[in-house]
Amino acid sequence: MKLQGRAKIYAISQVVISSLGFLSSLIGGGLLLVFGLFSGMIDPLTANEAGLMLVIGWTSLLIAVAFILALISAIFHLQGRSMPALQPSTQRIIQGALIVVWIVSILGVLLISRFQALNLITSLLIIPLVLVPILFFFWIGARNLSLGNRPRVWGAVAFNFSIMMPVVLLAELVLLFFIFMIAAVWLAGQPELLSQIMMYADQISNGLMEPLEAEQLITDLISRPIFLNGSILVVAILVPLLEELFKPMAIWFLAGKHLTPSQGFVGGLIGGACFAMLESLGAVGIPAESEWLILLFGRTGTGLLHVTLSGLVGWGFASAFYNRNWGRAIATYLGAVTIHGLWNFFALLSGIVPILPISEEMNNLPVLLGQIGVFVLVALFVINLVLLFSVNRQLQQQPAE
Q: CA-to-CA distance for 251 and 317, rounded, in angstroms?
């Protein structure tokens, strides 16, 4: 039976979004791979930047594949047909193969990352190192649950890559603009500091600043309470408020589809997984220092954070739409913002406290919090994993509230 009315409009919209997304991702990914490959060969000093460009290029091609699947599912839906489903045994084989791919990839990266000429291969191996854990976190949360039919699932993926991510980026850019304006007004009353920053900015723009000078500049800035407190305000409060609101954005557009709480949870998981994949692949780059593995495992924890918390917020939003359970919507949103804020707070302190000058005025509190930061992050990782299992179990027992 072919679609009619609003369902047909949704399917056609998915065809358009998926087609445009595929073309832009394919072209953009190809250009990034070419530029990244040749820029690294021409100027070895820019190898790290070129490596990141290669990683983003492969990521764009991966997203192009997702858009193709969304396009195919929409076409099938318009024709009144269903996409072929994977059998459970096939899914288990794929999951086992992904584990093998992850192990081979990390061994490959450790072996060949020292050879700059192989950056194209190294950057490709980075993709499964980030993607595979995120997929497993999603499968844990979505086990025996569903967002609905496959066109809706792949439509949510296409929506998150094409709409949600640009909206989040735009919102954060607007936030940064207002922060910049406030900082500019404050600096206008600090002529000495403003003069120093202008001098450093001129040195950076002319390529005259040495690494030690740059490190000293950062240390000088973050040792000032207003910069440290401002960074905490932005990273631990404002950013979580924005991201946890927008990551499950696809749920907003399914509100009139009688979306159940379990479907909202799965829709949120999809949004969190898409966000986590793009954010992490844009952050890890290729190995440049011995601490790269720590960064990779840290981003794995961040991936779990985004998947779990976005699922919680999606569950809450869908509960509000489905049976007017606004209490759950508010509680899950505030809980997600709190956990996200704690994660960002301790991650920030763990990174900057080692370079802060110790003084009596600090009362050693930031130092203490920075020292326990790693343990808090591990505890938050466990909490998110437990939440993922427990909410999935609860929703399996109550499939329709």
A: 7
Q: Which residues are within 8 A (CB) of 193 and not within 5 positions of it... i.e. 6 or more apart?
A: 187
Average pLDDT, the chain: 84
Measured from the Cβ of residue 199, the count of other Cβ atoms closer than 10 Å reads: 12
Instruction: Find out whether 288 and 165 touch, Cβ atoms under 8 Å.
Output: no
DSSP letter for each residue of 247-300: TTHHHHTTGGGT--HHHHHHHHHHHHHHHHHHHHHHHH-S--STTHHHHHHHHH
Q: Which amino acid is at 198?
A: M
Contact criterion met (CB below 8 Å) for 324 and 261: no
- Considering just the CA atoms, what is the radius of gyration of the chain in Å? 23
Nearest to 219 by CA among 208, 232, 230, 228: 228
- The pLDDT tens digits for 132-160 are 999 999 999 999 998 888 888 999 999 99
Cβ(305)–Cβ(380) under 8 Å? yes
The identity of residue 299, as a single letter, is: R
Q: Is there a contact between 223 and 361 (Cβ–Cβ < 8 Å)?
A: no
DSSP state of 218: H
Q: Say how far apart CA 177 and CA 173 lie, in whole Å.
A: 6
The one-letter amino acid code at 397 reads Q
Q: What is the pLDDT of residues 75-132, one digit of tens each?
A: 988 888 877 777 888 889 999 999 999 999 999 998 888 887 788 899 999 999 999 9
Q: Give mean pLDDT, residues 186-211.
A: 64
257-286 average pLDDT score: 91
Structural tokens at position 161: 């890559």
Q: What confidence score (pLDDT) does residue 360 get?
A: 46
Amino acid of residue 230: G
Whole-number Å distance between alpha carbons of 377 and 386: 14
Q: What are phi and psi of 289, to 5 degrees?
A: -135, 170
Tokens of 174: 């607007």
Give the type of residue at 266: V
CA distance 4 to 220: 63
Q: What is the rounded CA–CA span in Å between residue 164 and residue 265?
A: 17
